[in-house]
């Protein structure tokens, strides 16, 4: 089964995300690829939806951030696109206030995590705003840093407004924050579509025995349970996890239960919610600098321990 590619467009308000999206959609259309778009706005009205042609499936997520208040809505609309439209790729334009880890967490629903391939997080940086960032609040400064630190591709945008010296300073500061992402100096967010297509966030499922980089880089792992497991053994596994696993969510079935439980884990805190029907036993992990092969081995060992 072909997986749908997911591209997340990140970056602070006014950095050039919608300009980038319009250009990418034009290029995708030239290559006859079936594309869908999800746009998230904090307000009740969509400002940029006219940037998307009418023949492209568009889902608008309004009046909230996909990181937190409208995660459920994102999940249902994304599933609708996957089932009904079956696109080759979906571009998700997050709000300028969105944290990349939270967006990735919202997108990777255990209901369909095995049907999508998150190709990467593309962060657009307003060069002048970055160089003048100390005039912004500490919270906004930190958000700008997080949007850069977790990116797989960084567009240093609006560089026509900068001197050569400022461009050099911008490049050095961004690369010091994230040396693993490819950085491009851009004007009007122009980037070759080939640069977008070759992105990879080192995402892996337990069916694909591929090497996963353990560099300091945000990555995810989808594990598909085949059997029920012992709850105490699972909780012992959780206690051994490194601090750089930020999120876990999915469905797990314990020996003592008839149906699976929905499991959520954030900053070391586990939460279980019992289901009353069978659900796909997919579990999604998001972390940084993680040896996913080791995590997979531990999960497989839990499944070999029968009740």
From TrEMBL:
InterPro entries (alphabetical): CobW-likC_sf, CobW-like_C, CobW/HypB/UreG_nucleotide-bd, P-loop_NTPase, Zinc-reg_GTPase_activator
An example Gene Ontology CC term for this record: cytoplasm
Record-linked SUPFAM superfamilies: Hypothetical protein YjiA, C-terminal domain, P-loop containing nucleoside triphosphate hydrolases
GO MF assignments: hydrolase activity; nucleotide binding
Recorded superkingdom: Bacteria
Domain CobW C-terminal positions: 218-303
A Pfam family it matches: cobW
CDD domains (alphabetical): CobW-like
Reaction equations catalysed: GTP + H2O = GDP + phosphate + H(+)
Family annotation (SMART domains): CobW_C
Keywords: Chaperone, Hydrolase, Nucleotide-binding
PANTHER family: COBW DOMAIN-CONTAINING PROTEIN, COBW-RELATED
Family: Belongs to the SIMIBI class G3E GTPase family. ZNG1 subfamily.
Protein name: GTP-binding protein
Source species of the chain: Cytobacillus praedii
Lineage: Bacteria, Bacillati, Bacillota, Bacilli, Bacillales
């Amino acid at each position: 089964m072909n997986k749908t590619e997911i591209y997340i467009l990140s970056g602070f308000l006014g950095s050039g995300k919608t300009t980038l999206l319009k250009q990418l959609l034009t290029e995708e259309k030239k290559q006859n690829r079936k594309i869908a778009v999800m746009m998230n706005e904090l307000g009740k009205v969509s400002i940029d939806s006219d940037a998307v042609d009418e023949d492209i499936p568009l889902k608008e997520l309004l009046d909230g951030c996909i990181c937190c208040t409208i995660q459920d809505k994102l999940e249902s609309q994304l599933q609708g696109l996957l089932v009904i439209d079956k696109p080759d790729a979906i571009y998700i334009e997050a709000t300028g206030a969105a944290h990349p880890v939270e967006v990735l967490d919202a997108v990777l629903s255990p209901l369909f995590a095995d049907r999508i391939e998150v190709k990467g997080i593309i962060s657009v940086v307003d060069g002048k705003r970055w160089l003048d960032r100390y005039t912004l609040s500490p919270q906004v400064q930190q958000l700008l840093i997080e949007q850069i630190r977790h990116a797989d591709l960084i567009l240093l945008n609006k560089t026509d407004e900068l001197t050569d010296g400022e461009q050099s300073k911008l490049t050095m500061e961004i690369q010091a924050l994230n040396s693993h992402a490819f950085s491009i100096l851009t004007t009007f967010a122009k980037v070759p579509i080939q640069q977008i297509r070759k992105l990879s966030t080192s995402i892996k499922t337990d069916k694909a025995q591929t090497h996963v980089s353990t560099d300091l880089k945000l990555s995810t792992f989808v594990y598909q349970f085949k059997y029920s497991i012992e709850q105490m053994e699972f909780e012992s596994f959780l206690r051994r996890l490194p601090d750089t696993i930020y999120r876990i969510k999915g469905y797990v079935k314990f020996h003592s239960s008839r149906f699976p439980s929905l499991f959520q884990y954030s900053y070391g805190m586990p939460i279980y919610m019992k289901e009353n029907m069978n659900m796909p036993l997919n579990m999604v992990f998001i972390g940084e600098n993680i040896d996913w092969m080791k995590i997979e081995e531990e999960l497989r060992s839990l499944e070999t321990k029968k009740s």
